[in-house]
Amino acid sequence: QTEDVRAGQIPRYVRVNTNCWSVEDAIAYFSRQGFTLREDGDELDSKDFSRDLHIPTLLLFSSSVSFQSDKAYQSGKIILQDKASCFPAVVLAPPSGANTHVIDATAAPGNKTTQLSALMGNAGKLFAFERDKNRFKTLQTMVSKAACTNVETANQDFLLADPRDNKYKSVTHISLLDPSCSGSGIVNRLDYLLGAEDEADDVKEERLQKLSAFQLSMIRHAMKFPAVTKIVYSTCSIHAQENEQVVRAALASEEAQSRGFVLAPRSQVIPTWERRGLEDELDDPSCVIRCSPGEDRTNGFFVSCFVVAETLSKTVV
Ligand code: SAM
Hints:
By secondary structure, the chain is of the alpha/beta class. The protein folds into two domains: 5-80, Alpha-Beta Plaits, CATH 3.30.70.1170; 84-315, Vaccinia Virus protein VP39 (Rossmann fold). It is 30% helix and 19% strand. The strands form two sheets. Strands 6, 7, 8, 9, 10, 11, 12 and 13 form an eight-stranded mixed beta sheet that branches. Helix 3 crosses helix 4 (111-119). The radius of gyration is 19 Å and the shape is globular. The chain starts with 11 loop residues before the first strand and ends with a helix. The site of S-adenosylmethionine has 19 residues, from helix 4.
């Protein structure tokens, strides 16, 4: 059986679900299980673990460790989530508190929905959309297992949600966290191994064009919600067509122009992460994040953040 060697270089990432546990309690639990907390997560052996440098609720273990039968995993206290996939919710940074209303437009299986719920302090309201019926069931199971009490799930196409519906009038933050994309950044993905990378150039181009048109329509729809001031768009793709080029088209759209959306500066988008957008694709590629499979010990990923320009001057320090 073919193995993608890059998979072995990605640590086992464990996100502590702060809806039911603290990071300190998690560290104490794993220490009792015989793991040793190391300062440096670069070369972990099977009995080591460490804290992540960028995501405060993330722990790293050796890729050889499995948590499927661990009590903490089965009870929803930990969630197995790749580091790169933890970035978008942290960038969206919804305030915690009863008055915060957020939309997660593409929610299943619910890794980032549960992460957003925890960042909101399990308070306020998080509307989570998922259009696929089976994946919606998975989302419901995950939301309940992670003890999220501020999430309202809807088995609905986000593009059909009416931005003028009174229900959404206070939504200020929207996450478009990997709407359907080519998945070309995912290491060990079956269709990668089976040769999706080998498809003919014109077929690949047509597929990417369809995906990017859909991705752009999702961002433009999100920009129509009357109170929205911050939108995070991410993909697990490595292609500029689905990443920087979609962002560029979104910035030029009627919706962005009329509402004054611009890209949030690097200072608000995990500034300490070194790998940024592709040169020549954006005026300021440092505004967006890229993760490279094989080079960053994560899957391939892209994160961008749109903000209403006038709110920016109030939040920049
Ligand atoms: N954000 C998820 C997480 O972190 O667990 C992963 C999202 S997954 C890559 C993409 C999901 O978006 C799929 O389940 C797909 O069915 C859903 N989706 C795609 N387009 C949608 C739409 N227009 N409305 C609602 N859900 C959509």
